[in-house]
Amino acid sequence: MTAPIVVMGVSGSGKSTVGAALAQRLRVPFADADDFHPPANIAKMTAGEPLDDADRHPWLEAIGDWLEERCGTGGVMSCSALKHRYRDQLRNHCPSLRFLHLSGTPEVIGARQASRPGHFMPASLLASQFDTLEPLTAAERGETIDVGQSIDSIVDEYVSRTGLEA
């Protein structure tokens, strides 16, 4: 494996859990994009305010730097990457970047969000996440997989579709 993978989707889709499981399966480093947010972004989301593109730009640059360092060796990053231009910004750091889009209905994702108390992204922002989401296009290197199955099944399906293995 030489290209890093971004596990993307709306808040509550399971990016961190699937990303960590995928990284373990592929035996590569894992990072969670939430850990790259500056304090101002966390404060804004905690207050129930969605981030704008100006808030996201430096955050995506920091994530891109992490991905760039792993462009020849691989790694897995969980990151919402909801818009094409956000994914383009990440690909500017590593053109071979791959994506795994975790897709689900607002009802399924909302139920998942409700089961994780204390997260800085409140459930009230879920609608804005779905409004912002631009699914992967055929031109992007990625797979879309439904979250309505076990973590192991999602990882198995992704590995099967891509032919990647540790």
Automatic annotation (TrEMBL):
GO terms for molecular function: ATP binding; gluconokinase activity. Its EC number is 2.7.1.12. InterPro entries: P-loop_NTPase, Shikimate/glucono_kinase, Therm_gnt_kin. It catalyses: D-gluconate + ATP = 6-phospho-D-gluconate + ADP + H(+). SUPFAM superfamilies: P-loop containing nucleoside triphosphate hydrolases. One of its GO terms (biological process) is D-gluconate metabolic process. This is Gluconokinase.
